[in-house]
Design brief:
With 195 residues, the protein is an alpha/beta fold. It has one domain: Maf protein (Alpha-Beta Complex), CATH 3.90.950. 28% of the residues lie in helices and 24% in strands. Strands 1, 2, 3, 4, 5, 6 and 7 form a seven-stranded mixed sheet that branches. Strand 5 and strand 6 form a beta hairpin. Helix 4 crosses helix 5. The radius of gyration is 17 Å and the shape is globular. The structure holds inosinic acid. The site of inosinic acid has 17 residues, from strand 3 and helix 3.
Length: 195
């Protein structure tokens, strides 16, 4: 079965590919000639994931899924949350977002944070949701060069290295996205008529 991952983020595609069973032919947006900016204007992770998968399904009529991720920081009342991508403003970089978090967390002893991913799957026009999360802390400085986004300043619970110091395989054992994708993969595996 062909399944489109509705994202332009190559890091996400790289992370997800090894988690999806071989019988699924995972396609990217460029594989279906979709080069548009996909709108993400909702105020919840679920709403944004759903908006992105619907956009692709409505336009291209393909089975697809989209994810939306947020980093909630307890001391910042859950910010940046659903606005994680644009925390430092429209068109900002990963580095800008990290700097804003570090500045807002300066001197704060409560470093608790949580990454959550919601996936919306549209299969034959029917929608299914899958969620994953990981708890951790916000570091006081960047550590590591792997991964993307907020990875250099996030240390997952039970570890003493940041996500950006982990290999892809290590991050995929525990990450918010891996947890959500594993649920998606298990669901697809249980649908014999789709294999
Ligand atoms: P979105 O799911 O692409 O909207 O992600 C929202 C924001 O969270 C973006 O700034 C991403 O870079 C960041 N983000 C998403 N997933 C991860 C991750 O696995 N690690 C670190 N940052 C992430």
């Amino acid at each position: 079965m062909d399944l489109v991952f509705a994202t332009n983020n190559q890091h996400k595609i790289k992370e997800i590919r090894p988690l999806i069973i071989d019988s699924i032919n995972l396609l990217s947006l460029s594989d279906i000639n979709c080069f548009e900016e996909i709108p993400e204007t909702q105020h919840t992770l679920k709403g944004n994931a759903s908006q992105k998968s619907h956009f692709v399904f409505d336009k291209f009529g393909v089975n697809c899924f989209a994810d939306d991720t947020g980093l909630e920081i307890e001391a910042l009342n859950g910010d940046p949350g659903v606005y994680s991508a644009r925390y430092a403003g429209e068109g900002c970089s990963f580095q800008d977002n990290i700097e804003k978090v570090l500045l807002n967390m300066d001197g704060n002893i409560n470093r608790k944070a949580k990454f959550t991913t919601v996936i919306s799957l549209l299969l034959d026009g029917k929608e299914y949701f899958f969620e994953g999360f990981v708890n951790g802390i916000i570091l006081t400085e960047k550590l590591g060069k792997e991964g993307f986004g907020y990875d250099p300043i996030f240390m997952p619970e039970g570890y003493n290295i940041s996500f950006a110091e982990m290999t892809l395989e290590e991050k995929n054992k525990i990450s918010h996205r891996a947890m959500a994708v594993n649920k998606l993969a298990a669901f697809l595996n249980l649908k014999p008529d789709n294999m």
